[in-house]
């Protein structure tokens, strides 16, 4: 592979890692008083956006192993923050949803994330924003093709 591509891939990897870390730090600072960890907040955000998804779907969306997600769900269930519901047609399938009192928190977290990113984008030109979004959409598209292609893991097997 061409050396320049390898260097650019390293730069992209480092940028993504830094962005993820900074975003997590921001979210931790904003939610320090609510008694939830960042993984719990991420899980609850996914449930807010995708109510009633299965544990397998949730693990894929979070990029975590099913066992890890199951542990997070267990802790949140004990705190009455999430609800597990068995599928009526297939009792082996469990759907997870936010408890009614937590749904408002999910809305606030979503709004907080959006406002934070909007404040960052406000420092950029429209051309820079368009270029950023176009590049990220392309990388996302390529990754989706790669992970949905031959040899992709079955989420229900891990």
TrEMBL record:
Keywords from the named record: Coiled coil, DNA-binding
UniProt-listed Pfam families: MarR (PF01047)
Domain HTH marR-type: 9-141
Coiled coil: 2-29
Gene Ontology molecular-function annotations: DNA binding; DNA-binding transcription factor activity
InterPro entries on file: HTH_MarR-typ, MarR/SlyA-like, WH-like_DNA-bd_sf, WH_DNA-bd_sf
GO biological-process terms attached to the record: response to stress
Keyword Transferase in record: no
Name by which UniProt lists this protein: DNA-binding transcriptional regulator, MarR family
């Amino acid at each position: 592979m061409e050396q320049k591509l390898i260097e650019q891939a390293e730069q992209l990897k480092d940028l993504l890692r830094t962005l993820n870390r900074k975003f997590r730090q921001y979210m931790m600072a904003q939610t320090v008083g609510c008694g939830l960890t960042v993984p719990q907040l991420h899980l609850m955000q996914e449930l807010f956006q995708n109510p009633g998804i299965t544990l397998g779907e949730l693990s894929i969306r979070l990029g975590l192993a099913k066992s890890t997600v199951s542990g997070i769900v267990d802790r949140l269930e004990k705190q009455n923050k999430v609800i597990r519901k068995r599928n009526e047609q297939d009792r082996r399938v469990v759907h997870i949803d936010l408890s009614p009192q937590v749904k408002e928190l999910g809305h606030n977290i979503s709004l907080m994330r959006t406002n934070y990113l909007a404040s960052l984008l406000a420092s950029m030109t429209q051309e820079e924003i368009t270029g950023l979004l176009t590049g990220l959409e392309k990388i996302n598209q390529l990754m989706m093709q790669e992970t949905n292609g031959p040899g992709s893991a079955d989420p229900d097997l891990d």
